[in-house]
Protein backbone atom coordinates (compact mmCIF):
# COMPACT_ATOMS: atom_id res chain seq x y z
CA UNK A 1 0.00 0.00 0.00
CA UNK A 2 1.39 3.46 -0.88
CA UNK A 3 2.24 5.95 1.79
CA UNK A 4 -0.57 8.24 2.83
CA UNK A 5 -0.14 11.70 1.29
CA UNK A 6 -2.20 13.52 3.89
CA UNK A 7 0.26 14.49 6.63
CA UNK A 8 -2.56 14.65 9.17
CA UNK A 9 -3.54 10.99 8.72
CA UNK A 10 -1.74 7.94 10.07
CA UNK A 11 -1.23 5.70 13.09
CA UNK A 12 -0.87 7.19 16.54
CA UNK A 13 0.20 4.98 19.43
CA UNK A 14 -1.25 5.91 22.81
CA UNK A 15 -0.84 4.45 26.29
CA UNK A 16 -4.48 4.27 27.39
CA UNK A 17 -4.93 5.57 30.93
CA UNK A 18 -6.67 3.69 33.71
CA UNK A 19 -10.47 4.01 34.01
CA UNK A 20 -10.83 5.51 30.52
CA UNK A 21 -12.69 3.74 27.70
CA UNK A 22 -11.26 3.16 24.26
CA UNK A 23 -13.90 5.53 22.88
CA UNK A 24 -12.57 8.23 25.20
CA UNK A 25 -9.41 8.23 23.07
CA UNK A 26 -11.42 8.35 19.85
CA UNK A 27 -13.39 11.34 21.14
CA UNK A 28 -10.23 13.06 22.38
CA UNK A 29 -8.44 12.65 19.06
CA UNK A 30 -11.45 13.89 17.09
CA UNK A 31 -11.30 17.11 19.10
CA UNK A 32 -7.52 17.34 18.82
CA UNK A 33 -7.27 16.66 15.09
CA UNK A 34 -10.61 17.86 13.73
CA UNK A 35 -10.84 14.52 11.87
CA UNK A 36 -14.03 12.49 12.24
CA UNK A 37 -12.77 9.21 10.79
CA UNK A 38 -10.85 7.80 13.75
CA UNK A 39 -10.79 4.21 14.95
CA UNK A 40 -8.51 1.73 16.66
CA UNK A 41 -7.03 -1.72 16.15
CA UNK A 42 -8.38 -3.43 19.25
CA UNK A 43 -10.23 -2.16 22.29
CA UNK A 44 -9.18 -2.21 25.94
CA UNK A 45 -11.42 -2.39 29.01
CA UNK A 46 -11.54 0.73 31.22
CA UNK A 47 -9.59 -1.21 33.87
CA UNK A 48 -6.75 -1.89 31.41
CA UNK A 49 -3.91 0.39 30.37
CA UNK A 50 -1.34 0.20 27.61
CA UNK A 51 -0.97 0.07 23.85
CA UNK A 52 -3.82 1.47 21.80
CA UNK A 53 -3.20 1.61 18.05
CA UNK A 54 -5.25 4.62 16.96
CA UNK A 55 -6.12 4.92 13.26
CA UNK A 56 -6.54 8.51 12.07
CA UNK A 57 -8.18 9.22 8.72
CA UNK A 58 -10.28 7.13 6.35
CA UNK A 59 -7.33 5.44 4.65
CA UNK A 60 -6.28 3.96 7.99
CA UNK A 61 -9.67 3.21 9.54
CA UNK A 62 -10.65 1.20 6.44
CA UNK A 63 -7.47 -0.86 6.84
CA UNK A 64 -8.12 -1.84 10.47
CA UNK A 65 -8.28 -5.54 9.52
CA UNK A 66 -4.54 -5.40 8.84
CA UNK A 67 -4.03 -4.92 12.59
CA UNK A 68 -6.94 -6.74 14.21
CA UNK A 69 -5.41 -10.16 13.47
CA UNK A 70 -2.13 -9.29 15.19
CA UNK A 71 -1.13 -11.11 18.35
CA UNK A 72 -0.77 -9.12 21.56
CA UNK A 73 1.11 -9.19 24.83
CA UNK A 74 -0.06 -8.29 28.32
CA UNK A 75 1.13 -8.12 31.89
CA UNK A 76 -1.66 -9.05 34.27
CA UNK A 77 -2.05 -9.28 38.02
CA UNK A 78 -4.66 -11.88 38.95
CA UNK A 79 -6.13 -11.63 42.42
CA UNK A 80 -6.91 -15.10 43.73
CA UNK A 81 -9.56 -15.88 46.32
CA UNK A 82 -12.67 -14.43 44.67
CA UNK A 83 -14.65 -14.58 41.43
CA UNK A 84 -16.57 -11.58 40.13
CA UNK A 85 -19.40 -11.01 37.66
CA UNK A 86 -17.10 -9.21 35.21
CA UNK A 87 -14.02 -11.39 35.81
CA UNK A 88 -12.19 -8.26 37.04
CA UNK A 89 -12.15 -6.14 40.17
CA UNK A 90 -14.87 -3.82 38.85
CA UNK A 91 -17.55 -6.50 39.14
CA UNK A 92 -19.70 -7.87 41.93
CA UNK A 93 -18.09 -10.58 44.04
CA UNK A 94 -19.89 -13.87 43.39
CA UNK A 95 -17.77 -16.51 45.12
CA UNK A 96 -14.87 -16.57 47.57
CA UNK A 97 -12.44 -19.20 48.74
CA UNK A 98 -10.06 -19.51 51.66
CA UNK A 99 -7.83 -21.98 49.80
CA UNK A 100 -4.32 -20.64 49.16
CA UNK A 101 -2.67 -22.40 46.22
CA UNK A 102 0.98 -23.34 46.59
CA UNK A 103 3.60 -22.14 44.10
CA UNK A 104 3.85 -25.68 42.72
CA UNK A 105 0.08 -25.77 42.19
CA UNK A 106 0.25 -22.45 40.33
CA UNK A 107 2.98 -23.70 37.98
CA UNK A 108 1.08 -26.93 37.36
CA UNK A 109 -2.17 -25.09 36.58
CA UNK A 110 -0.39 -22.76 34.15
CA UNK A 111 0.55 -25.74 31.98
CA UNK A 112 -3.06 -25.79 30.73
CA UNK A 113 -2.72 -22.19 29.49
CA UNK A 114 -0.07 -22.84 26.85
CA UNK A 115 -0.46 -23.32 23.12
CA UNK A 116 -3.89 -24.03 21.65
CA UNK A 117 -6.63 -23.48 24.23
CA UNK A 118 -10.37 -22.92 24.28
CA UNK A 119 -11.96 -20.14 26.28
CA UNK A 120 -15.41 -18.64 26.76
CA UNK A 121 -15.97 -14.90 26.52
CA UNK A 122 -17.18 -13.15 29.71
CA UNK A 123 -20.82 -12.08 29.73
CA UNK A 124 -19.57 -8.56 30.38
CA UNK A 125 -17.83 -8.18 27.01
CA UNK A 126 -18.43 -6.45 23.68
CA UNK A 127 -18.71 -9.75 21.84
CA UNK A 128 -21.92 -10.05 19.81
CA UNK A 129 -24.26 -13.00 19.97
CA UNK A 130 -27.37 -13.07 17.77
CA UNK A 131 -26.79 -9.39 17.03
CA UNK A 132 -26.62 -8.26 20.65
CA UNK A 133 -23.64 -7.25 22.75
CA UNK A 134 -23.11 -9.63 25.62
CA UNK A 135 -22.68 -6.79 28.09
CA UNK A 136 -26.11 -5.42 27.16
CA UNK A 137 -27.65 -8.78 28.02
CA UNK A 138 -25.58 -9.05 31.20
CA UNK A 139 -26.80 -5.66 32.40
CA UNK A 140 -30.36 -6.97 32.03
CA UNK A 141 -29.46 -9.94 34.19
CA UNK A 142 -29.55 -12.29 31.20
CA UNK A 143 -26.87 -14.95 30.80
CA UNK A 144 -26.65 -16.86 27.54
CA UNK A 145 -24.62 -19.88 26.52
CA UNK A 146 -21.37 -18.90 24.80
CA UNK A 147 -19.46 -21.28 22.59
CA UNK A 148 -15.78 -21.71 23.54
CA UNK A 149 -13.38 -20.16 21.04
CA UNK A 150 -9.94 -21.40 20.05
CA UNK A 151 -7.05 -19.14 21.09
CA UNK A 152 -3.27 -19.51 21.28
CA UNK A 153 -1.42 -18.61 24.46
CA UNK A 154 2.13 -18.31 25.72
CA UNK A 155 1.78 -17.73 29.44
CA UNK A 156 4.86 -16.86 31.50
CA UNK A 157 4.98 -16.82 35.30
CA UNK A 158 6.42 -13.57 36.72
CA UNK A 159 5.71 -13.57 40.46
CA UNK A 160 3.37 -14.88 43.14
CA UNK A 161 2.60 -13.47 46.57
CA UNK A 162 -0.91 -14.57 47.55
CA UNK A 163 -3.41 -13.27 46.58
CA UNK A 164 -1.55 -11.63 43.69
CA UNK A 165 -0.29 -13.71 40.77
CA UNK A 166 1.55 -11.80 38.04
CA UNK A 167 1.80 -13.22 34.52
CA UNK A 168 3.04 -12.23 31.08
CA UNK A 169 0.67 -13.41 28.35
CA UNK A 170 1.25 -13.50 24.62
CA UNK A 171 -1.98 -14.34 22.82
CA UNK A 172 -3.82 -14.52 19.53
CA UNK A 173 -6.64 -12.20 18.53
CA UNK A 174 -9.92 -12.56 20.39
CA UNK A 175 -8.32 -13.65 23.65
CA UNK A 176 -9.90 -12.42 26.88
CA UNK A 177 -7.32 -12.03 29.63
CA UNK A 178 -10.23 -11.80 32.09
CA UNK A 179 -11.30 -15.30 31.03
CA UNK A 180 -7.78 -16.57 31.69
CA UNK A 181 -7.95 -15.10 35.20
CA UNK A 182 -11.36 -16.64 35.82
CA UNK A 183 -10.48 -20.05 34.39
CA UNK A 184 -7.13 -20.20 36.17
CA UNK A 185 -8.83 -19.37 39.46
CA UNK A 186 -11.24 -22.26 38.93
CA UNK A 187 -8.38 -24.59 38.05
CA UNK A 188 -6.68 -23.64 41.32
CA UNK A 189 -9.95 -24.12 43.26
CA UNK A 190 -9.35 -20.64 44.59
CA UNK A 191 -11.30 -18.42 42.15
CA UNK A 192 -9.66 -15.41 40.55
CA UNK A 193 -10.19 -12.13 38.72
CA UNK A 194 -8.11 -9.44 37.01
CA UNK A 195 -6.74 -6.85 39.40
CA UNK A 196 -4.45 -4.97 36.98
CA UNK A 197 -3.92 -5.31 33.24
CA UNK A 198 -1.49 -3.64 30.85
CA UNK A 199 -1.14 -4.30 27.13
CA UNK A 200 2.56 -4.10 26.36
CA UNK A 201 2.46 -4.95 22.64
CA UNK A 202 -0.02 -5.02 19.79
CA UNK A 203 1.45 -6.54 16.64
CA UNK A 204 4.66 -4.68 15.88
CA UNK A 205 3.81 -1.78 18.18
CA UNK A 206 5.36 -1.66 21.67
CA UNK A 207 4.46 0.19 24.84
CA UNK A 208 7.68 2.26 24.77
CA UNK A 209 6.49 3.81 21.47
CA UNK A 210 3.25 5.08 22.99
CA UNK A 211 2.34 8.63 23.96
CA UNK A 212 0.71 9.30 27.32
CA UNK A 213 -2.52 11.30 27.34
CA UNK A 214 -1.10 14.29 29.32
CA UNK A 215 1.31 14.90 26.42
CA UNK A 216 -1.62 14.92 23.99
CA UNK A 217 -3.29 17.61 26.06
CA UNK A 218 -0.21 19.84 26.16
CA UNK A 219 -0.78 23.07 24.17
CA UNK A 220 2.60 22.68 22.47
CA UNK A 221 2.03 19.07 21.42
CA UNK A 222 1.91 18.30 17.67
CA UNK A 223 0.38 14.89 17.05
CA UNK A 224 1.53 14.86 13.39
CA UNK A 225 5.15 14.60 14.57
CA UNK A 226 4.30 11.21 16.10
CA UNK A 227 2.27 9.64 13.29
CA UNK A 228 3.37 6.39 11.68
CA UNK A 229 2.35 5.52 8.14
CA UNK A 230 2.42 2.57 5.76
Q: Can you describe this structure?
A:
- The protein has helices at 22-33, 58-61, 65-68, 103-110, 134-139, 177-187, 213-216, and strands spanning 10-16, 38-40, 48-56, 72-80, 82-84, 93-96, 115-119, 128-129, 132-133, 149-161, 164-171, 192-202, 205-206, 211-212.
- The chain has 230 residues and is of the alpha+beta class.
- The chain has 2 domains: 10-69 and 204-226, Pseudouridine synthase; 72-202, Pseudouridine synthase (2-Layer Sandwich).
- The strands form 3 sheets. Strands 1, 2, 3, 4, 7, 10, 11, 12, 13 and 14 form a 10-stranded mixed beta sheet that branches. A two-stranded antiparallel ribbon has the order 5-6. A two-stranded antiparallel ribbon has the order 8-9.
- A hairpin with a 2-residue loop joins strand 12 and strand 13 (205-206).
- It is globular.
- The model has no long low-confidence stretch (mean pLDDT 92).
Q: Which helices and strands, and how do they pair?
A:
Blueprint: E1 10-16, H1 22-33, E2 38-40, E3 48-56, H2 58-61, H3 65-68, E4 72-80, E5 82-84, E6 93-96, H4 103-110, E7 115-119, E8 128-129, E9 132-133, H5 134-139, E10 149-161, E11 164-171, H6 177-187, E12 192-202, E13 205-206, E14 211-212, H7 213-216
Parallel strand pairs: 1-14, 3-12
Antiparallel strand pairs: 1-3, 2-3, 4-11, 4-12, 5-6, 7-10, 8-9, 10-11, 12-13
